[in-house]
Design a protein that fits this description.
Number of strands of chain A: 14
Distance between the termini of chain A: 31 Å
Structural class of chain A: alpha/beta
Oligomer: homodimer
Strand order of the largest sheet of chain A: 1-9-14-13-10-11
Number of helices of chain A: 9
Largest sheet of chain A: 6 strands, mixed
Amino acid sequence: MDYYKKRTLTFPNSYVIDGYTVAGPKENDGRYKGFFDLALEDDMFGQNTFERAERKMFEHAIDGVIGKANLTNADVDALVGGDLLNQIISMSFSARKQHAGFLGLYNACATFAESLIVGSCLLNNGLENVVCIAGSHFSTAERQYRYPLELGVLRSPVTQWTATGVGATVLSNQCETSTPKVTRATIGRVVDYGIMDANNMGAAMAPSACDTLVTFFKDTETSPDDYDAIFTGDLGKLGSDILLDLTKQEGYDISAKQHDCGASLYWDEQQTYQGGSGAACSALVFNGVLLGRLRKGEYKRILLAGTGALMSPTTSFQGDSIPAITHLVEVCF
Amino acid sequence: MDYYKKRTLTFPNSYVIDGYTVAGPKENDGRYKGFFDLALEDDMFGQNTFERAERKMFEHAIDGVIGKANLTNADVDALVGGDLLNQIISMSFSARKQHAGFLGLYNACATFAESLIVGSCLLNNGLENVVCIAGSHFSTAERQYRYPLELGVLRSPVTQWTATGVGATVLSNQCETSTPKVTRATIGRVVDYGIMDANNMGAAMAPSACDTLVTFFKDTETSPDDYDAIFTGDLGKLGSDILLDLTKQEGYDISAKQHDCGASLYWDEQQTYQGGSGAACSALVFNGVLLGRLRKGEYKRILLAGTGALMSPTTSFQGDSIPAITHLVEVCF
């Protein structure tokens, strides 16, 4: 693996005040049943289109996390995040209801980790409270990226299932009580190993996850032993296996520590094949599961490595391969 | 206008090392002929699709600005920016050729100003050199957002013309010689006045430009008199007129200082009606024109207010209005 230049940032004052999650019905039937703040019974969420349902999930998550952090809307300086829809409309339209500034992000399913990085930078530049957020919706993503839902296309066994959910985090530049902190982060670079199969995104993303993890370990002179858990975003089962091989080749054995947010989201009988994908995976697991484990002392230091595949239907039609990116944050308590 | 909370950041060490521009043929036939580093004779740029031409423009602009700043690719810590295509593919795919980290942004035509804000924050968090970049291409945007080019649809007199071009800036956290600096910025919030006409984006964006400008003046206790020029991104002629009215109602007369990057890009006989639009407008004018004027002493303090309309074809089809955002940066020399 090529190693170029330090890409790791240190954040002295990025406190995770709280997280909030809205999960779809299938997600709340999965392995993390009961971990989410709001579980939808119907993924239409009372709206007349799937896109408006996704938007309403974002609106709920923003208001939810602000309330849970004991803030008012007027206390929030900035919203930072995005979604998978063209022109990140779920995020942009939901931001209309807030007074806060808005920085729209897009790094596919790595957007949640990206939002924690940009949010932490903003705190270091004088902002007080920032909401970091990302999410996705199976039915909007499926019809935008793949096929009309009504077509009932058979899925390949290497595919993943776009998770329905939104996760939001309030980061603040100070906190009176003891709370987890985003302490360091590595900004991912775009890695393209020439994978052409848009149904096998785990394989496309694993080299980028390896690149970012190894860069972080080198930059910080740490190793997998220093962490209680390393959560990748949505490599899925096959992508995780590839990552374990690749990191081992680089001299880092993460097999005892690595979990994948997407792969861990569903039970096998839910037939998602390689597990969940989508920007919701890491946002749901970080805010719904990992923050709680950090607070309970089950984890003291973890890494979240958000993985994203940066292609579009247009690039696939035009015969391009699938570039990928992985942003990593270190969270300690 | 509602005023909530300070959204203005101060950057102590965000030096503008240099800018680089790639412009389309129509743009280089306009009012800024000869101001661009590379002017294309053919907007296909030797590629077999318009999307690949746009990507190649991004690749050229990144390499061009790195070279012009006397850096090598390995000196750059991060690329920060985006474009108007779904999944910001022009930016993401061009980032493959670099070693630097990448943060993908999307705030429509406000993306260039957004990139200067995020880039400046990164410098304040320890990065040394960041490339901020945005752009657009008439032929990719037209067929993605509106109609097939071959259809030859007649255009309404309130429309604008998506500019073809890419502008990139190297920001560094130190500079041995005297150079312009990004000194302050106001993060825009999403403003939606309920405008439904996707052909009249100037009207949709003007209230957001007013919101951000007035917020900046209040936050910093400055007035239009403190600036040599105030460049809005792509309000067009009609949108600029609306902005002058709105800011006057708020007690700020910017009529002697305001110029619009998009409206100033073309001659009347080029039949772009309200002028240029697209992420390229502010990126081309800032890097191709304004930096030079700052260096020559024609301007000492300017404001760049990047304007963006955050809708998508899907939201228009589903009957939604057009939310807008404006990010502002102050640049001084």
